[in-house]
Amino acid sequence: MADDAVPIPLDLKIREYAFQLQDPSLSKLHEQAAKAFWESIEKNEMAPYMSTLPSSLTPPSADLQSRLKAKNEEQLKKIEAKIKDAEESLGETDVSEPMREKAGYLVTIGDKENALPALDAAMEKTAGVGARIDLVLAKIRLGMFYGDSSMIDSNIKTAQDLIEKGGDWDRRNRLKVYSAIHFLGIRKFKEAADLLLESLSTFTATEVMEYEEFVAMTIIATGVGCDRKGIKTRVLNNAEINSLLPQMPALATFTKSLYECNYAEFFKSLAEVEETYLTPLPVFAPHARYYVREMRIKAYTQILESYKSLTLERMSKAFGVSTTFIDADLSRFIANGRLACTIDKVSGVITTTRTSAENKTVAYEQVVKQGDILLNDIQKLSRIIG
User: Fold this and answer.
1) CA distance 283 to 290
2) Do the beta carbons of residue 372 and residue 380 sit within 8 Å?
3) Residue 253 to residues 44, 236, 267, 272, 299: CA-CA distances in angstroms?
4) What is the tens place of the pLDDT at every residue in 176-206?
5) Residue 311: φ, ψ to 5°
6) 359-365, long-range: CB within 8 Å, 24+ apart, which pairs?
7) At what angle do helices 129-145 and 13-21 cross, to 10 degrees?
8) Closest CA to 80 of 113, 112, 110, 114
9) pLDDT the model gives residue 57
10) Span 294-326, pLDDT tens digits
11) Contact 292/274 with Cβ under 8 angstroms?
């Protein structure tokens, strides 16, 4: 495996399929997920990973694990022979190659217990910075595969240190994607959105996901991670995203309706995004309720910023829901300090409120805006007089 080698393969879709198969609420995905799951396990000879599966995931054939285990033993025996031969007759550089091959195979078959020490041993024998980074990136993917957040975090830091010592452009960009996925997993949507948007035109990390999946992840992250202006300038005006939006109608409606203040469409698309992208994916599923809540708050805040007051009836019509729902939803967010408004239950009127600091900010912005207009008018007048 040369210094510019392709990443060690590990099919991260397998984790997604396993997650779906263990969630009864995703039963409509089970048939397709089960087929892809077991085909991928057999293709990648993942006998060690099979030993970690719960009893509810039954293989299609009783002897599958034993057959794959035999293949593992045969392949590892061949690699060990290469290592022994290299140790006896070749130099340090030549020993590192079969050691990386062994570590890579253990990663591919999902053998976390043996892969980690093998990766460390290969690191010790590997001189090239690029190849060392590849081994650390393999650790990060193994952490993603097993949902090990601390393992991902520590190895991202190691990879960052190595990249600062001489990592190339491609590996630097791959690490951005890895870091963004980690941020999503720990609910840091803004940090994730910034990295994902930076990587749109330089994406090469196909070892973790396809480009269309990457774009979908970016759009979802920007929902919470960007304000309305950012959604317009960084998402809707982005050429890479726009080229794929027609293939993702739910996300297209979700993003456009929020920016265009079409709140009824936004609420419908938010439900569809939750069902299609959030609950079925292990990176988003633990945060699905949080995400939906934050997007509702964002939409409510957006409409309230446009009015000093409006009726519950008008707001419920704007969102396409009942006044009872809007009343209960707003009341909960007001009580938690997430919305700056009050509800008069007698008159059915919602009145926006601002703190003194917010009022000063608004007043300052208005003065600056009016000042700019005045200066422009003076400049135009001076040109006419001159």
Assistant:
1) 13
2) no
3) 38, 11, 10, 10, 14
4) 999 999 999 999 999 999 999 999 999 999 9
5) -85, 155
6) none
7) 10
8) 114
9) 93
10) 999 999 999 999 888 999 999 999 999 999 999
11) yes
Task: Please enumerate, as own/partner, the contacts of 275-283 that have beta carbons within 8 Å and a separation of 24 or more.
Answer: 276/250, 277/216, 277/220, 277/250, 277/251, 278/220, 279/23, 279/25, 279/26, 280/16, 280/19, 280/20, 280/26, 280/29, 281/16, 281/19, 282/15, 282/16, 282/19, 282/147, 283/181, 283/184, 283/185, 283/217
Interatomic CA distance for residues 104 and 179, integer angstroms: 21
Tokens of 311: 């009726």
Q: Residue 1's pLDDT is what?
A: 38
Tell whether the model's pLDDT for residue 362 goes beyond 70.
no
pLDDT of residue 375: 73
Exposure string over 134-151, b if 16+ CB within 10 A, otherwise e: bbbbbbbbbbbbeebeeb
Q: What are 150's two structure tokens?
A: 């601390």
Residue 343, strand partner residues: 350
DSSP state of 349: E
Instruction: Return the HEC string of 216-284.
Output: HHHHHHHHHHCCHHHHHHHHHCCHHHHHHHHHCHHHHHHHHHHHCCCHHHHHHHHHHHHHHHHCCCCCC
Q: Tell me how far apart the alpha carbons of residues 363 and 199 are, in angstroms, rounded to a whole number.
A: 37
Contact 129, 166 (CB under 8 A): yes
- State how far the Cα of 269 lies from the Cα of 247, in Å rounded to an integer: 15
Given a cut of 80, whether residue 354 has pLDDT beyond it is no
Q: What share of the chain in percent tops pLDDT 90?
A: 77
**8 A C-beta contact, residue 59 and residue 38:** yes
Sign for the pseudo-dihedral over CA of 245, 250, 255, 256:
positive
For residue 279, what pLDDT is reported? 96
Query: Tell me: the pLDDT tens digits for 75-133?
Result: 999 999 999 888 888 666 678 889 999 999 999 999 999 999 999 999 988 888 888 99
| pLDDT at 377 > cutoff 90 | no
pLDDT at 41: 96
